[in-house]
Design a protein that fits this description.
single chain, 18-stranded antiparallel beta barrel, 8% helix, globular
Length: 407
Amino acid sequence: MRVAAVVLGIWHSTFGIAGAQPRLDGYATLMFDHLPTIEPSATELRTRIFGELSVRTSSVVELTSGYADGLAADRGASVYDAIVRAHEVLVTLTFDRADLQAGLGRVVWGRLDELPPGDVINPLDVSRFFFEGRSEARLPVSLLRGRWFITEGAVLEGFYVPLFRRGRFDQLDEPTSLFNLTAGLTGCLAIEICPEPGIVSAEPAATFQNAQGGVRFSGTLRRLDYAVSAYRGFRPFGVVAPELEGEAFRLVERFPRFTMVSGDFESVRGPWAFRGEAALFDEADDPRARAISGVPGLAWDAGFAVDRKTGAYRLSGTVLVSRGSQTTTNFIIGTDRSFAQERYTTRTFGVINVNDGSALVRNITTMTVRDNVALEGSVGWFFGESADTIGRFADRDFIYARLKLYF
């Protein structure tokens, strides 16, 4: 706490604005994880130090956060890595009925837990998606965001994302990560005609024509919260295929451009909560990516969720239907419980693809050791194989223990 006070004092005396109210929060984590079912298996030690500093005045909010991650792992060979990254660096100007935000940030669209179809602005870190959930997995993008508060219950917002950022399988030594689906990827077009090793990433250039952006209107009608959105951008994970370059074939990853229109809603009736979401995607202007992936120009995802608090338990269920080159239906069923005066919490849930027979079953249990110290353990089992998000990681069962200290 003394260190935090010193940092706040230096920041405030150097950069502070009259009337500013600075606040520093953060945490440190130490996590051991093991993936036993893939060859080679992996045992990892992951560390993170995260800090967030916010400064507020009557008309300006400055938010700066970042993290330093470390890795020491046995992934068939000893691997060490460390990174320092910005999490969010945002300046928000507030007005009577509007605000304007610029910087590096994360934006959440959609209503469904973990797999919301309309949540397309921020790319994901796949390893953190499985270990910590979608909220922690979102990677920030450069953005300009404006909001107009039309009435108390109606907001119109627009986004401009000037630079493309790709998704990551793992920010820590990605080439050796067991969450990396492209590691060692190769293929042959015919006998003795095979691509050279390695993947060439053809990311969209930083030009005005490759900018991304969208609009969203959200409102409240009686006891129903709803929103409609439109967005045009690039897929954060590309399509990999062999292409002829000179006299050699190379594996090239290209990122399809898409247009999305979506809608979502949420309502509460007594102990019941209901959420729904649907998104329509159009990739008609990228025929090469469609030909490689087999996905038609139009595709859609739609889901409905319900949850209820019953005694010490919270029960939830979601059905998500996706239509591309084929139709897939996923069921997500979960239960949460706190006990011993909320010192312990446990969550168990399963994701089941009924078309392909693949599934993920997971338990997360957390113990609050002290007010600022938590110990968490989790086990995840994958069953079956398929081409969807869960089935592609069929041999990546994992277990971990994590200690988290807040400051």
